Amino acid sequence: MKRKFWDVISSFSLNRIFGNLSHEVGIDLGTANTLVYVRGKGIVIREPSAVARKKKTKEILAIGSAAKRMVGRTPKNIETIRPLKDGVIADFDATVSMLDYYIKKVHESGTVIPKIPRPRLIIGIPSGVTEVERRAVAEAAVNAGARRADLVEEPMAAAIGAGLKVEEPDGIFVVDIGGGTSEIAVISLGGIVLGRSVRIAGDEMNEAIVNFVRLKYSLLMGEPTAEEAKMSIGSAYTLAKEKFFVVRGRDLESGLPKSVKLTSEEVREALSPILQEIAKNITETIEEVPPELIGDITDRGIILAGGGALLTGIDKALSEITHLPVNIAEDPLTCVVRGCGILLENDSLLNKIRFTS
């Protein structure tokens, strides 16, 4: 009994010591991008979830933006990978390296005396992950130096980051369209009443553009080019003035370089099946909403978060399909990480909503 008492005291003391000497950090560990929030500072890192390393030795050469710039340009002995796929860890070692890099980066910057990189982390992850996948994220965080890692569901974190009162008995409908997953959730009384994690999102949009251009123009182009086209002229609804974007790649017939002027109408056509699939999952979720909450959702509408919410006209397109108002959250790309940041200062709410083993 005496030994257990002193173990508790020792653990409590260490937590207080590390709490004073290290930052408290919220992380949106996304398939496409990783955002890092430091308590008292706000969002300090927005980087692509990418790692470049040597194939044989696995030596890390670049992480984040530097690694993304290397995609499709590396020699045979170097590979550029995305450590997460569909919102879950695809390469454990690369994920640990990426987390370790960002944890050290936030502890070394902006201070005269660098803090000890032993932070408390709150990480947003997809709601549909398995227990094994949750443990993999928590283990990666601990291996990267975290003294404690709490995991929260992305749609819940997004709702909190959007300024919604998730503990009220009202129904909140959130759709978070990220890079790897689209998170659809009905929230009430601090919990998710209904939820779907659909592995169709921004990555599939990029792939759809690549396939469209290959089939229509016999042009092979890279995913980064498709993503650039999506962000520049992509839309989900007819534009008042259509746009165009020049894409470059390799002609599949001649093997020579080729350029094509891609119109916003063509990109919209390419994206249509992906958006229809997301809309289908939203309507199916609406059909399952309890009668007591449907009135709240009808009044408030659907709240859109995530990078996918930045697609021009997506609110109008989804509103027409669902017959509900659709509102885009303020700065939708950062909703999840801002929600994690709010939870760093609200332990009572965190204890209610975090994943428990």
Low-confidence runs: 1-19
Largest sheet: 5 strands, mixed
What is the H/E order?
HEEEEEHEEEHEHEHEEEHEHEEHHEHEHH
Helical stretch count? Answer: 12
Beta-strand fraction estimate = 25-35%
How do the strands and helices of this protein lay out in sequence?
Blueprint: H1 2-21, E1 24-29, E2 33-38, E3 42-48, E4 51-54, E5 60-63, H2 65-68, E6 78-81, E7 84-85, E8 88-89, H3 92-108, E9 120-125, H4 131-143, E10 148-153, H5 154-161, E11 172-177, E12 182-188, E13 191-198, H6 202-217, E14 219-220, H7 223-233, E15 244-251, E16 257-263, H8 264-286, H9 291-300, E17 302-305, H10 314-322, E18 326-328, H11 335-343, H12 347-353
Parallel strand pairs: 1-9, 9-10, 11-17, 17-18
Antiparallel strand pairs: 1-2, 2-3, 4-5, 4-6, 7-8, 11-12, 12-13, 14-15, 15-16
Helix pairs in contact: 3-4, 5-11, 6-7, 6-8
Question: How does this model look, in words?
Answer:
This protein is an alpha+beta fold. It folds into 3 domains: 22-156 and 337-353, Nucleotidyltransferase, domain 5, CATH 3.30.420; 165-201 and 272-331, Nucleotidyltransferase, domain 5 (2-Layer Sandwich); 202-270, ATPase, substrate binding domain, subdomain 4 (Actin, Chain A, domain 4), CATH 3.90.640. The chain has 12 helices and 18 strands. The chain has helices spanning 2-21, 65-68, 92-108, 131-143, 154-161, 202-217, 223-233, 264-286, 291-300, 314-322, 335-343, 347-353, and strands at residues 24-29, 33-38, 42-48, 51-54, 60-63, 78-81, 84-85, 88-89, 120-125, 148-153, 172-177, 182-188, 191-198, 219-220, 244-251, 257-263, 302-305, 326-328. The strands form 5 sheets. A 5-stranded mixed sheet has the order 3-2-1-9-10, sandwiched between helices. It has a 5-stranded mixed sheet with strand order 13-12-11-17-18, with helices on both faces. It has a 3-stranded antiparallel sheet with strand order 5-4-6. Helix 5 (154-161) packs across helix 11 (335-343) and helix 6 (202-217) crosses helix 8. The longest helix is centred in the C-terminal third of the chain and has 23 residues, at 264-286. The chain starts with a helix and ends with a helix. The relative contact order is 0.14. Residues 1-19 have low confidence and may be disordered.
